[in-house]
Amino acid sequence: MSSASSAPTVAVLGTGLMGSGMARSLLRAGLPVRVWNRTPAKAQALAGDGAVVHPGADEAVRGADVVLTALNDGPAVEATLDAAAHGLRPGQLWLQTSTVGPDATRELAARAAELGVVYYDCPVLGTRQPAEDGKLTVFVSGPPEARERLAPVLDAIGQRTVWVSHEPGGASRLKLVANTWVINLVGAVAECLGLAEGLHVDPRLFLDAIAGGPLDTAYLHTKAAAVLTGDLTPSFAVSTALKDTRLILEAAQQAGVRLDLTAASAERFSRAEASGHGDEDMIATYFAGRAQ
Length: 292
Hints:
Layout: E1 10-13, H1 17-28, E2 33-36, H2 40-44, E3 52-53, H3 57-61, E4 66-69, H4 74-84, E5 93-96, H5 101-115, E6 118-121, E7 124-125, H6 128-133, E8 136-141, H7 147-157, E9 158-165, H8 170-198, H9 203-210, H10 218-229, H11 238-255, H12 260-277
Parallel strand pairs: 1-2, 1-4, 2-3, 4-5, 5-6, 8-9
Antiparallel strand pairs: 7-8
Helix pairs in contact: 4-5, 8-10, 8-11, 8-12, 11-12
């Protein structure tokens, strides 16, 4: 970084739903942002917000203080890192925000060590709108020495940063636990709405019946509204939820833990994806409950 007081320049690699939101939050905070995406149009859309668009990942990271990856899975992150390798320099800070699971996290940490960059396991909890608003919860595992330098970036993208451990992996494990809650919660919403439909119960009666009580959640009303209005614009897509659910089940199996609800959620997401709902919001798991 050029000086202790200067705003760090951030290279955002991956400008999908989450990456584009985080890039805009960084720009609003006054940080210089460079962007790259495998589909150039998605990166170009951020030019009007003030981001500098680069045609290559290596060009985007060259000279940046912090590299932030926001991609779909471990193989995508690894491929992007390889594409960026010639632009990286020793000591560069890498915030890896994608949910990739513990195994891929270990592999990426090893690759970072080979390249000389400082790896931060940094998955985020939240969906499209919190990313746009800079209100994600950010889990971080990595060396504590750069906490002060990373603070402007973490503060820009999140409303809360949870430092989990000094070694990569702890944050990714916590993210899988948190995602288990979200995934099974959305399944519960979907099943309640599906049963209401099947029993000819107005779902609004159910929503009103528990409103304000100890079982009520804002999440229930948000996801129910998406189904009832037919607006399935993805905050977090079915296909991505399925990918994360499989990561959870894989980690649970390795840990000797049986997750019956999560396994059922995976089956529902898989059916929803197979029936054409993969790019819709994950509450489209609702459609997987309909009789075939």
